[in-house]
Amino acid sequence: MVRAAAKLFGAASVGVVELDQNTRKLFYSLDGWDGRKVEFEDEDKAYETKEKKVIPYKAQWVIVYTIRMSPPSLATAPAALSTAASSMAYSEGTSVQLRLQQFINRLGYQCLADGNMGTLGNSPSFGVLAGLGELSRLNRMISPRWGPLVRVFKVITDLPLAPTKPIDAGIFHFCRSCKKCAEFCPSNALSMETEPSWKVQGTWNNPGVKAYYEKAPNCFSHWLRLGGHDCGICIASCPFSKQDKSFIHIHDFVRQIIATTPAFNGMFRRLDTDPGYGKEPKAWWELDLPPHGYKNTQGM
Q1: Which class for 218: exposed (0-12), middle (13-18), buried (19 or more C-beta within 10 A)?
Q2: How far apart are alpha carbons 164 and 62 in whole angstroms?
Q3: CA 20 to 30 Å from 54, out of 14, 109, 237, 286?
Q4: What is the SS3 assignment for 150?
Q5: How far apart are CA 207 and CA 13, in angstroms?
Q6: Is there a contact between 159 and 61 (Cβ–Cβ < 8 Å)?
Q7: Residue 231 and residue 219: Cα distance in Å, rounded?
């Protein structure tokens, strides 16, 4: 029911994570927006004060959903048009959030907002646990259907829901031999190591996960050099991003092989010769794009 409603409201994919002693660790100790403490308490209703935001223990389900981004727009990265695609996804994520809150509230349950920037906790981490995608070298969630061309959002509720399970589509293992995003990263922010590591790059990283930790200051410094907008080259260059041209998306059997036979990953990476970014922004204005800038070619 919730999944059907969320998709009606604009979500591309929907999953559920049940909160327990371990998954609550994904919440920040301080709200990323206003710096107030984020705490769980044995209360019936959520409440907030000037010092803290309290989530009831009974609100133990996190609804995670994705919003797609426009592939042709991201392909202009690092132009400002690619930033527009990202910003639109964040805006639409907020709209879906508000609709979900009203829907669940009308059912008689609480639905707590996280904000479109995920200020209460790391949304991609919840997306991975909900089975919407996998962690990646570019430290964003990659969906098996839409690649990294999604933004991840969440709401917290006391409406009992069946949790969805993590997936293994071979994406994280593909990143091991691909390294394309790191090779094209203009600020050398992404790891070129073959193996993921427990070792963080700095205080900006959240420890406790075996991952390809990034050098975030390099990335943000490059944003400033661009004039204050996003870069997006890592997302656009990913082989999983090229919805219409990539061998990964054209051939279903390739995705099946990636999921089951990682020995071929190096070959598939070499076949992906299109950089995926740097497309001429002027040409974008001549495109006759569908609503939101993407075609609904997979699924309904």
Answers
A1: middle
A2: 11
A3: 14
A4: strand
A5: 28
A6: yes
A7: 8
Q: Is the pLDDT of residue 250 over 50?
A: no
Q: At what angle do helices 2-9 and 80-106 cross, to 10 degrees?
A: 140
Q: Is the Cβ–Cβ distance between 138 and 77 less than 8 Å?
A: no
Residues in the chain: 300
Q: For residue 275, give every residue at least 6 positions away whose Cβ sits within 8 Å of its Cβ, in sequence order, or none.
A: 184, 237
In this structure, the number of other CB atoms found within 10 A of the CB of residue 273 comes to 7
| Tens-digit pLDDT profile for residues 27-65 | 999 998 889 999 999 999 999 999 999 999 999 999 999
> What residues pair up with 30 in beta bridges, in sequence order?
37
SS3 95: helix
Please name every residue paired with 39 in a beta bridge, in sequence order, or none if there are none: 54
* Prior bond of 71 cis (ω within 30°): no
| Cα separation values, 266 from 172, 279, 287, Å | 13, 26, 34
Number of neighbouring beta carbons within 10 Å of residue 50 = 6
CA 297 to chain centroid: 20
**Tokens matching residue 179:** 């390294």
Lowest mean pLDDT among 30-39, 165-174, 254-263: 254-263
CA pair distance 14, 103, nearest whole angstrom: 15
Given a cut of 70, whether residue 183 has pLDDT beyond it is yes
**Which DSSP string do the residues of 221-246 spell out, in sequence order?**
HHHHHTTSS---HHHHHSGGG-TTT-
Alpha helices, DSSP H, located in 57-150? 71-74, 80-106, 123-129
